Amino acid sequence: MFSCGYRRSVRLPAPVETVFAFHLDPANLRLISPPWTPVARLTLPPRLIPGARVDLEVRVFGVVPQRWVVEITTVEAPTRLVDTALTSPFRRWRHTHAFRAVGATTEMTDSVEYDPPLGFLGRWMDPVVTRPMLAAMFRHRHAQTAALLEANQLRAES
């Protein structure tokens, strides 16, 4: 059982199949990562399928290196993608991307279940440290995803 959770939804300007395909391309991770946690190193599988692993290093505030090894555990096109951290700063981390068609757009919901580092202290600090950082990260990721999908849509219409 996870001790903490975070959820955020966004409406994206593209059909659900397009949004799902965008998230299946692991190279897009660099494009949507916030500037305060740039991806310094990234080893990608050719495709995100169950069992595939993404190995990356982010630099928190551009300085503190954090290594993440994430395994794709579920791919249910075009509605759900789940990844679980095998190596990360968190004791446990499971991230579910859920996609739902809403007319010609997509509602995407990111849900993260996690156990923060530092045990009791990490859980106690979650509302003032981890949760606000996750909120800022997902706001940025969602805005970048929307902008990239919109730009791609405009190019396709030209």
- The unreliable regions are none
Number of domains: 1
Share of residues in helices: 25-40%
Radius of gyration: 16 Å
The end-to-end span amounts to 49 Å
Q: Strand content of the residues, in percent?
A: 35-45%
Can you write the helix and strand succession as a string? EHHEEEEEEHH
Provide the structure class. Answer: alpha+beta
* Name given to the CATH architecture: 2-Layer Sandwich
| Average residue pLDDT | 92
Number of DSSP-assigned strands: 7
Number of helical elements: 4
Looking at the structure, what is the overall shape? globular
The CATH topology label is Alpha-D-Glucose-1,6-Bisphosphate, Chain A, domain 4
Can you tell me the CATH superfamily? START domain
Q: Main beta sheet, described?
A: 7 strands, antiparallel
Kindly report the spatial arrangement of strands forming the biggest sheet.
Answer: 1-7-6-5-4-3-2
CATH level 1 class label: Alpha Beta
Describe this protein's structure.
The structure is a single chain. The chain is built from four helices and seven strands; from the N terminus they run E-H-H-E-E-E-E-E-E-H-H. By secondary structure, the chain is of the alpha+beta class. It has a single domain, classed as 2-Layer Sandwich (Alpha-D-Glucose-1,6-Bisphosphate, Chain A, domain 4). A seven-stranded antiparallel β-sheet has the order 1-7-6-5-4-3-2. The chain is globular.
Secondary-structure topology with pairs:
Blueprint: E1 4-12, H1 16-24, H2 28-32, E2 39-43, E3 53-60, E4 64-76, E5 80-87, E6 92-102, E7 105-115, H3 119-125, H4 130-157
Antiparallel strand pairs: 1-7, 2-3, 3-4, 4-5, 5-6, 6-7
